[in-house]
Write a structure and sequence with these properties.
Layout (H helix, E strand, L loop, with lengths): L3 H14 L5 E5 L5 H18 L3 E5 L6 H8 L7 E5 L2 H9 L10 E9 L2 E6 L8 H10 L5 E4 L5 H13 L4 E4 L3 H10 L4 E5 H9 L3 E6 L27 E7 L4 H15 L2 H9 L3 E2 L4 H22 L5
Helix pairs in contact: 2-9, 4-11
Length: 315
């Protein structure tokens, strides 16, 4: 009992002084892409507000699991955090055994943004102008139409699984190793459709090479305001919102979590951050740690059920 008070006081003092040194921000994917851009943009702003730099550390591999495992095992002293995505809710049912627990081993900080996926097709397909056209064509020839993804279990793949499930159609899923080669084959006509991230799809939509049929989110995207949601376009109830959020190791002091949360929320309100987000099609959200906890539990339940029902397996 005599040791409890000094230890508690030390923890409170450490949290009160936070941050007193640079903070490591782990990105569990390679540089480039929406996740990397969001972290670097917010890290720069939050670092200035908190008086210590955020050092970006890309730790890619195993669908984000290498970076997540590193953060789960890092000291809970407030100097390691991670940006992650929908994989936080999908990797456990996809991989079966993980070296970490997505819920128990992390302290939620805040939701950051949603980056919609968009259903696109090559504009050389003249007969498919709408979602209704696509569903009709798929019902006419079950299993013939193809859709590409950035890999099994990615949000690009899962968006397609939700689509075919709700529409009660059969389409052939063609997984690639990353969005780049998938988009290249879509542009070349080797595959018919893709539920690509708006970040990589928008330039090709704007150039006229790809036709956007609908965005996957429940609301239209400000990056493509004239493109309907898939629910508006004829598939009632459809919604897939690829999200990004920040977590720290479980046990991180709540005062640290609160200070980081406030810095991130403030950064997301700044006009230049909004402008940067707009270039990648990201819609800023922001949340309390408690809201992120509830969101992760809902998403984990939803995707675990779909992955089991559809028998989705990794390569």
């Amino acid at each position: 009992m005599t040791l409890a008070a000094p230890l508690t006081t030390h923890a409170q003092t450490a949290a009160g002084d936070w941050p007193s040194k640079p903070i490591r921000w782990v990105i569990p994917f390679p540089p480039g892409g929406a996740m990397d851009a969001i972290a670097r943009t917010l890290g720069e702003k939050a670092g200035k507000a908190l008086g210590q730099p955020f050092v970006i550390d890309n730790k890619p591999g195993a669908g984000g699991n290498i970076g997540a495992d590193f953060v789960a095992k890092a000291p809970a002293d407030g100097y390691t955090l991670m940006i992650t995505s929908i994989g936080m809710a999908t990797n456990k049912p996809l991989y079966g055994k993980l070296s970490y627990d997505p819920v128990k081993d992390f302290a939620p900080v805040s939701l950051l943004a949603v980056v919609p996926n968009v259903l696109v097709t090559n504009t050389t397909q003249p007969n498919i102008k709408t979602v209704t056209d696509l569903i009709a064509a798929a019902k006419k020839e079950p299993g013939k139409l193809t859709y590409a993804s950035a890999g099994n279990g990615t949000s690009v793949h899962l968006a397609g699984e939700v689509f075919t499930s709700l529409a009660k159609i059969e389409m052939l899923h063609v997984p690639y190793k990353g969005s780049g080669p998938a988009v290249a084959d879509l542009l070349g006509g080797q595959v018919n459709y893709m539920f690509d991230s708006i970040t990589s799809a928008r330039p090709h939509i704007q150039s006229g090479k790809l036709r956007a049929l609908g965005v996957t989110t429940s609301k239209r995207s400000s990056a493509l305001p004239n493109v309907p949601t898939l629910a508006e376009a004829g598939l009632s109830g459809y919604e897939v919102s690829p999200w990004f959020a920040v977590f720290m190791p479980a046990g991180t002091p709540k005062t640290v979590i609160a200070k980081l949360n406030a810095a991130l929320l403030d950064a997301m309100k700044q006009p230049d951050v909004h402008a940067r987000f707009e270039t990648i099609g990201a819609e800023p959200i922001g949340s309390s740690p408690e809201e992120l906890t509830a969101h992760l539990l809902r998403e984990s339940s939803r995707w675990s059920k779909l992955i089991a029902e559809r028998g989705i397996k990794l390569d």
